[in-house]
Amino acid sequence: MSNLPSEPEFEQAYKELASTLENSSLFEKNPEYKKALAISAIPERIIQFRVTWEDDKGEVQVNRGYRVQFNSALGPYKGGLRFHPTVNLSVLKFLGFEQIFKNALTGLSMGGGKGGADFDPKGKSDNEIRKFCVAFMSELGKHIGANIDVPAGDIGVSPREIGWMFGQYKKQTKNWEGVLTGKGLAWGGSLIRPEATGYGCVYYVDHMIKYASGGKDSFSGKKVTISGSGNVAQYAALKVIELGGTVVSLSDSKGSIIAKEGGITPEMVSTIADLKVKRKALSEVASSSDFSGKVEYKEGVRPWLHVGNVDVALPSATQNEVSQEEAEGLIKAGCKFIAEGSNMGCTQEAIEAFEKVRKEKGQDAIWYAPGKAANAGGVAVSGLEMAQNSARIKWTSEEVDEKLKDIMKNCFENCLNTAKEYVTPKEGEFPSLVAGANIAGAIKTFSAMHDQGDWW
């Protein structure tokens, strides 16, 4: 990769996966997988295009659009679309690469991909966002399909934007098909999809807690610090509260709210959800009558070093939101479980800090779960939406939730058992879930690539 421009986010994701494979017995048992890793690091296809659209002043604007179709060994390319000014090829390649192995861990027939544009929805009118979505899909629609590539939403892309893009795709192709997930419930969307990433992350951690305690413990009574305030953070918070835990923080890019006593309530989460639809900052509610005296707003910081002693941490905002310093702070604060609701939420240095303590302190240590396992619930329910669209049926919320619980249970057990097999833990040491997730996802992907002739 030395002849390529610097791609720090992608290089971090690749090294994180490659290092765990190299430090396991995987290549010793299957030396041919080294070649498969090298092949899987190069996308099958990258589509880059310009998006021209007209703002409300009648002036033409231009943005860069992308779709990274990374790996289709296990099914159609599957992964979100992100509209944000930070979007570039490095970010999308990192997200698409992670998506390959995350999708493999769901057990569903989905390959890995990611896309988006450097378009910033903030400060734009609804009409301008709609025009951009139509222009974006006018080009992207030439490269996707229900059996080719099925994008979903991500940062900056809600069900509203999915609707506008779906409408444009249908006008171009004359096809009503499950080409996008995260659709409206009235026209092919799945119940539980908005909740799925947050719910799934909490379900995964619940299995961690039960395994660590021999089935004796649960979320009940746990103090939980959460970052972010979008869909993932909101629904993770609501599920933690439902299971008896206390949520002590939420955040956005401008700062954090830290609960004083009693924790953040479902009513507060609902207020924040309404705020986010309007693309406003948490600072605007922190001093309101519903929040005043109940939370403290800290400008310009993430919550990790400001919440005191906690039991569980759920990074649920964006990549690299837990640094080494913050990781060490969480360890000192007595945190026992950390799971990424965001993609690559922890820096490599933070992961190394968690893993070092896991090895040194055994069952008294913090136990870390990577996003490719812990936040797989969102894409899992996207896969279930695809299945419902293909069969022209609709499952109840209870049915979807039960399927999500089963998928997250199987994902946890797969990570756990794979880690035990390929990175044998010492007596009294929790298995490495990051190694288990990487190895389990790689084995499934690489074996499918081999069977289809990508390597031999």
UniProtKB/TrEMBL annotation:
Signal peptide: none
GO CC entries: cytosol
Binding positions for substrate per the UniProt entry: 78, 99, 102, 153, 382
PROSITE patterns, per database record: GLFV_DEHYDROGENASE
Single GO term (MF): nucleotide binding
Pfam families: ELFV_dehydrog, ELFV_dehydrog_N
InterPro entries referenced in this protein's UniProt entry, alphabetically: Aminoacid_DH-like_N_sf (IPR046346), Glu/Leu/Phe/Val/Trp_DH (IPR006095), Glu/Leu/Phe/Val/Trp_DH_C (IPR006096), Glu/Leu/Phe/Val/Trp_DH_dimer (IPR006097), Glu/Leu/Phe/Val_DH_AS (IPR033524), Glu_DH (IPR014362), Glu_Leu_Phe_Val_DH (IPR050724), NAD(P)-bd_dom_sf (IPR036291)
Superkingdom as given in the UniProt entry: Eukaryota
GO BP annotation list: glutamate biosynthetic process
Catalyses which reaction(s): L-glutamate + NADP(+) + H2O = 2-oxoglutarate + NH4(+) + NADPH + H(+)
Active site: 114 (proton donor)
Subunit description: Homohexamer.
Protein's recorded name: Glutamate dehydrogenase
Source organism: Knufia fluminis
